[in-house]
Structures are given as structure tokens and as C-alpha cells.
Design brief:
mainly alpha
Length: about 120
């Protein structure tokens, strides 16, 4: 009986619907540790933001490549400049993840340049 007394009609919580990839969770695991240093809610929130940003940058990356006639690697390097530095919108590790995810979404090679320390 659907929706009847005997059924379990509880709504699924957001944490059960969002699958955060291990590559993103790894950003919150300190060397030599197994567990992340942040709560599931925090990690999920950051993941949603970073995934949305990577998705939003797809069109921008394609436009840059077309307008400037530059390589995929050059496009990613230019976008990296905006994601890194003192006024960056995200921490360094998240910026790297966003650029890798962007490359994946575009089916481009993942960035391989050196990260400035």
C-alpha cells in the first residue's frame, strides 16, 4: 500500500542525496590522518559551491579559447590566476579541484602547471 500506514514515507535528507566524490573529501584529510578535519555538512556545502563554480566556468573557458585562439592549457592557466592568490574566492586546494573538474567537464587534459607556493 503506497503512502499508507505501513509504508516509510520519510523524506530523504540532502546528505543522503548528495554524493561528494572522494577526490573532494581528500581536500579535508590532513596527511597521516584518515578522517576529514571538517563536518560532513561543511564539506558538502563546499563541494556544492565548487561544483557549481566549475560548471559555471565551462562556458567562460570555451569563450576564452574561441575569442583568444589559445590552447586548452592556456585557458586553464588564465582561469587559475583568478582562482588563486590573496583575493581568491576559494582556498588553494579547492581551486586546484575546481580546475581539474573544469577540465573533466570540458573533456580537456587536466592542468599540469606548477602551483605557486
Amino acid at each position: 500500500m503506497i503512502g499508507g500506514r505501513g509504508s516509510d514515507n520519510r523524506r530523504m535528507s540532502d546528505e543522503n542525496q548528495i554524493v561528494v566524490p572522494p577526490s573532494f573529501i581528500a581536500l579535508f584529510v590532513e596527511p597521516g590522518r584518515v578522517k576529514p578535519n571538517a563536518s560532513r555538512e561543511h564539506i558538502t556545502g563546499r563541494y556544492e559551491f565548487c561544483e557549481a563554480l566549475a560548471t559555471m566556468l565551462v562556458e567562460r573557458a570555451q569563450t576564452l579559447q574561441w575569442q583568444l585562439g589559445i590552447t586548452e592549457a592556456d585557458v586553464l592557466a588564465r582561469l587559475a590566476q583568478g582562482l588563486r592568490g590573496p583575493d581568491a574566492p576559494v582556498p588553494e586546494a579547492e581551486a586546484g579541484w575546481i580546475l581539474s573538474r573544469l577540465a573533466e567537464l570540458l573533456e580537456w587534459e587536466r592542468p599540469s602547471w606548477k602551483q605557486d607556493k
